[in-house]
Amino acid sequence: MKLRKVAVVGAGITKFVRRAQETAKELSYQASKMALDSCNMPVEEIGCVVHGTAPDAFDGVHMKGEYLSEASGGWRKPFMRSYVGGGTGVFAPINGWYLIASGMFDTCLVVCEEKMSSCQPHPQGAFLTIFDHTTERPLGPNLLWIFALEMNRYMQVHKIPLEQIALVSVKNKHNALDHPSAQLGAELTVNDVLNSEVMAWPVTRLMVSPTSDGAAAVVLASEEVAKKITDKPVWISGVGWDLDTAYWTNRDLYYPEYVEKAARMAYKMAGIKNPREEINIVEPYDPFAYKELHHLEGLLLADKGQAPRITAEGITARDGKMPVCPSGGLLGVGNPIAAAGMMKICELFWQLRGEAGKRQVKNSPRTGLAQAWGDLMQVGTVVIMQRKD
Amino acid sequence: MLENMLNLSGTALEEEDFRTQRVFFTTDIPKLEYAWDCGVAIGNYLKGLKQGKLWGTYCKKCKRTVIPPRVFCEICFRNMDKWVELKDTGTVNTFSICYVTWDMKKLTYPQIPAVIEIDGATKGKGILHLLAEVDPQMVRVGMKVKAVWKPKSEREGAITDIKYFKPI
Questions:
Q1: Distant-in-sequence, close-in-space partners of B49: CB < 8 Å, separation ≥ 6
Q2: What is the domain extent for residue B63?
Q3: Model pTM score
Q4: Residue B59, in any domain of the structure
């Protein structure tokens, strides 16, 4: 099948906050409207809408996609919701990409929104039902368990000290100080991170992203339309996604094979032979500090067990050779699940156009990669974006 | 672009806003009840647990024995070939020491969830369970453990028929 070229031509985002006065519809509308206005596109010229939002349980609204459709510019349009848990924010633009690449549409508005705060007393309650109802839930698991179990396995296999993992929190929360959406930007030391409350050893409080309300959106366009809108289109040059088994206790959690498969699919499509040389800026999914490292390895951007080393060497700092999470990531900007992944797509768009302001990386990037992850530690979603000079 | 980034939408609410009724909200507690049928494979697994036994299933094409058992092999996508009785001992693959509940309340005694590779299953195939009768600081990956069962009369065909695993 001959695929058409697809560009990102506009982006919009709200603030990420612990509890927003705005409803889910109002947040979706604000991000959508900002994305449309940023490229002067009237909603009438949008051919189709893709909406990404994670569990209905957060809002307590069944069929949340349909509920949010008109707030996402979807009134009387071809509309679809896409959803793979935490991987949604990078999966939704993949869905939008193929609606245009296939030739079916010339424009697509992709909107991701999450309002986690509605779920009482704590949004983590919405995650309790991801565990198997017969073999796991009677044991009383909570979401921290699976992250702590995966992190410990990763640390044990590679003999990684906690200090090196804490560096990711320090870096990302520092970067977030320059993001206008950020919920938890901070100047911290490694000791601050290590000495924060132990929640589920080896995870401490400052190694965990917050729960958030927020939304983010992009406008996608075919080559013909994109060239009329902007002289700085950012092309989606590769996409990949992959799911592993939900029998998560039957896998070695030290390495995310499914992320590697998703990355290889995207690299092949983008014609990338040597990712470490060709990817100039990375926004991997960082809901917990170790996840950034785990994902850099799965994305083949570091050898297995070596992501902590390149972090300690400053390679992944905003002014490093391969900046990682220059946005501030989920750890710093916040984690409204689906919107957090889309925030990463927006960041690449602004960075590749040189519009990231104080966050602008110094290595004048041509190619960037965004990745998200989710479900029972089983889904990897990858998008590669490129500017052409 | 940079210009409209300076004034983003999204209004953070504080305790004060609710106390002074600057903002309003409504609440509801939807009541949903479920009864989950355990199915063929897990049904047999639970029957085994009631008898104090752990069962897995074997795929002869992929040459692997898995637990929890399933009726189909997700790799070669055909029926599993036979049931295999496993031991109630195993090895700690990974663990955590959890100090909080799901809604972030402090626990008096930490819980020690672990993935336990079960003896008799293919290496790396394990289940989620809890560790106890051990100093949390002494738990190690690679530690050998054994199931501590509820007394026979109290077992009900549930994963909790194993109270926890303890070091051997």
A1: B155, B157, B158, B159, B161, B162
A2: 39-167
A3: 0.96
A4: yes
